[in-house]
Amino acid sequence: MKTRRRFIATMVVAVLSLAAGAAWAAKPTVEIIAMVHPPVQDALKPLRAWLAKQRGKLRVVEIDAESARGEKRLEAVGLNGHIPIAILIDGKYRFRRKDGSPVAFVNFPDVKDSPPGIRGNWIAADVQAVLRDRIK
User: Fold this and answer.
1) What does the pLDDT read at residue 22?
2) Beta-bridge partners for 104
3) pLDDT single digits (tens) 50-90
4) Which pLDDT score, from 0 to 100, does residue 20 have?
5) Is position 35 within any domain?
6) Helices (H) and strands (E) in the chain — how many of each?
7) Closest residue by Cα to residue 107 from 78, 129, 81
8) Within a 10 A sphere around the Cβ of 29, how many other Cβ atoms?
9) How many CA atoms lie within 13 A of 28 on its CB side?
10) Is the dihedral of CA 31, 82, 48, 136 positive or negative?
11) 121 lies in a domain?
12) pLDDT tens for residues 4-48?
């Protein structure tokens, strides 16, 4: 009787350990919700190039921001209005940099050629930094 209980307890612990290991090993999901217009696509080239080099470490999902799916996804995370770009990492777009300052992966990246008025406070390196912490 004790042997049977010990066996069952061991099996339960083994199954829970495997489940926990799978959860820890899950790949981060990056959702790029963006308009398909040329200035938007050009702005995303540096980030997409870096993501392509991370083969197998990340799951990348592309969604047209102007599609019904894109609009619903933006609404689901609390974004509405004219949003040309939103980068979600595991469902979130707001993070803190190493220095503690807030960053939101919404609108164009903050680079020289980005249009004023819809320029965010992020650059591709900010997205990369968040992802590096998750794919170690």
Assistant:
1) 45
2) 94
3) 999 998 899 999 999 999 999 999 999 999 999 999 999 99
4) 45
5) yes
6) 4, 5
7) 81
8) 14
9) 21
10) negative
11) yes
12) 666 565 555 555 555 444 445 689 999 999 999 989 999 999 999
- Both tokens of 14, joined, read 């083994």
- Name the one residue in this structure whose structure tokens are 């102007």: 66
Number of domains, the chain: 1
Task: Determine the residue type at 10.
Answer: T
Only one residue has tokens 């503690």, namely: 100
Residue 106 identity (one-letter amino acid): V
* Polymer length of the chain: 136
- CATH assignment at residue 45: 3.40.30
DSSP the chain: -HHHHHHHHHHHHHHHHHHHHHHHTPPPEEEEEE--SHHHHHHHHHHHHHHHTTTTT-EEEEEETTSHHHHHHHHHTT--SS-SEEEEETTB-EEE-TTS-EEE-BSB-SSTTSPTTSB-S--HHHHHHHHHHH--
Task: Please give the single-letter amino acid code of residue 113.
Answer: D
